[in-house]
Design brief:
The protein has about 325 residues and is an alpha+beta fold. The chain folds into two domains: about 140 residues, Cyclophilin (Beta Barrel), CATH 2.40.100; about 150 residues, no CATH class. It is built from eight helices and eight strands. A hairpin with a 4-residue loop joins strand 1 and strand 2. Helix 3 packs parallel to helix 8, helix 5 packs antiparallel against helix 8 and helix 6 runs antiparallel to helix 7. The protein is globular. The N terminus is likely disordered. This is Cucumopine synthase C-terminal helical bundle domain-containing protein.
Length: about 325
């Protein structure tokens, strides 16, 4: 690292909204902050928390976030000051901009400056409207303060030729759709499902199941395989067996629902699995995690969350209960 963790400033820009905020990487969790700093600049689809409250997050092109551990953790992110910037093992950069309801630990790396908090609140409200109802695609750019923007996706490599060809194809598909919705997902959300998945020609149940399978496949299964390969002494034979147990069935189901490329990539991964040493295994599961988490991010944006907008939480004890 050529610079200290403190004194580094990043700009978080939403060009479509005309909003820029500046945050300082303030020395907390330097490994995470370094990984973020070294990956700049990048762009991503901006997301918003759907169950946790006033929280922005987006998918970041940093494979190392899957296994780096933040030692300086806030036990309950609800208690973090507004404007706190977090890096997550779910490959997210998050920003708390108001009230949160989810009591979970989090690893902070910085803080949005106080004078930019009104702009951050404005961005949060605009992104919520986009994710929940309008479906406007709002992109975010994160860059070193005072520098030009840009964007790149990491392309990992493997010694095994079949694995390396797979990595190239997964990388190309990830790069192609990092900033534009994958056609398979866009078609699905328009009701075009070639397999006919969706009983009695319904669409919403299929979308719900795709969301419910994609997110844990990326976050838990592939993220867990990455962490197993890096942070444990688990033998490579055991890692291969865990991959067989965790990824095939959900990927096959998602292929039936319309994610054909994911199912094809998964079959190719399983076919070359026995030839992979630890380094090649780590490269493949890391690249696959980046791709699947991308699918998850787009699915969260495209999903019709306002379909049951009239259904709202009851704030009076006992309200809505049937006796």
């Amino acid at each position: 690292m050529t610079e200290t963790s403190t004194g580094r400033h990043i700009e978080i820009v939403w060009p479509d909204l005309g909003i820029t905020v500046t945050a300082e990487l303030d020395g907390r969790n330097p490994e995470l902050a370094d990984a973020l700093w070294e990956a700049l600049p990048y762009q991503s689809l901006q997301g918003h928390a759907l169950v946790a409250g006033e929280h922005l997050y987006h998918h970041v092109p940093i494979p190392k976030l899957l296994h780096l551990h933040g030692d300086d953790r806030i036990a309950d992110r609800r208690d973090a000051p507004d404007g706190t910037v977090f890096c997550s093992a779910l490959q997210h950069l998050g920003i708390k901009y108001g009230t949160l309801t989810e009591p979970m630990g989090a690893a902070p790396v910085g803080q949005v400056r106080a004078e930019d908090m009104p702009a951050l609140l404005e961005a949060g409200q605009a992104v919520w409207d986009a994710v929940y109802s309008t479906k406007k695609e709002i992109l975010v750019e994160v860059r070193k303060a005072g520098t030009a923007g840009g964007h790149s996706i990491p392309r990992l490599t493997a010694a095994d030729p079949d694995a390396d060809r797979l990595l190239q194809d997964v990388y190309a598909e990830t790069e192609r759709h990092w900033l534009s919705a994958p056609a398979e997902l866009a078609d699905m959300h328009q009701g075009w499902i070639p397999s006919g998945a969706g009983s009695f020609e319904t669409v919403l149940p299929t979308l719900l199941f795709v969301n419910g399978e994609t997110r844990p496949l990326g976050y838990a299964s592939y993220g867990g395989l990455v962490r197993g390969a890096v942070n444990t002494d688990m033998p490579i034979e055991s890692l291969r067996e865990m991959a067989r147990l965790l990824v095939g069935i959900p990927a096959e189901f998602l292929g039936y629902c319309g994610l054909d490329k994911l199912w094809d990539f998964t079959q190719r991964f399983l076919a070359c699995l026995d030839n992979l040493d630890r380094d090649d295994f780590l490269a493949v599961v890391s690249q696959m995690a980046l791709y699947i988490n991308l699918l998850g991010a787009w699915n969260l944006h495209l999903f019709p969350w306002d379909a049951t907008d009239t259904l709202r939480q009851q704030r009076t004890a006992g309200a809505g209960r049937q006796v």
